[in-house]
């Protein structure tokens, strides 16, 4: 489970299994973050994070109980929201973000 703390970090709360959560893991992201999407982007079964910020979309892959950044992709001016879904029907989760007057589509190329 994730929650935006401010515009520079994402908090991840792992569930204990009884309706409560462990202390959050704080993950620094690009400044002026606007939205996040959670999906398994590399197909390993663990949910990853795509964080949309003014400077672009930052991909963070889950590795155990931490997240590893793997690049920033341009997303357009005036970004607002981001979602994950299989846009091209190949079985891999893609990313779509909205900006002032455009959509950015990141087609997942993970093998
Ligand atoms: Ca994953
Ligand atoms: Ca896809």
What does this entry look like structurally?
The mean pLDDT is 91. Helices cover 0% and strands 48% of the residues. The two termini are 26 Å apart. A hairpin with a 2-residue loop joins strand 6 and strand 7 (66-73). The protein contains no helices and 10 strands.
The strand order across the widest sheet is: 4-5-6-7
The percentage helix is under 10%
Number of DSSP E strands: 10
Query: What proportion of the residues form beta strands (DSSP E)?
Result: over 45%
Distance linking N and C termini: 26 Å
What Rg, in angstroms, do the CA atoms define? 14 Å
Q: How many helices in DSSP terms?
A: 0
User: Oligomeric state of the chains?
Assistant: single chain
Q: Could you name the key traits of this structure?
A:
single chain, 111 residues, mainly beta, four-stranded antiparallel beta sheet, three-stranded antiparallel beta sheet, 0% helix, globular, binds calcium ion
In brief, what are we looking at here?
Helix content is 0%, strand content 48%. It has strands at residues 2-4, 9-12, 25-28, 33-39, 48-53, 56-63, 66-73, 82-85, 94-98, 103-106.
Write the layout of secondary structure elements.
Blueprint: E1 2-4, E2 9-12, E3 25-28, E4 33-39, E5 48-53, E6 56-63, E7 66-73, E8 82-85, E9 94-98, E10 103-106
Antiparallel strand pairs: 1-2, 2-3, 4-5, 5-6, 6-7, 8-9, 9-10
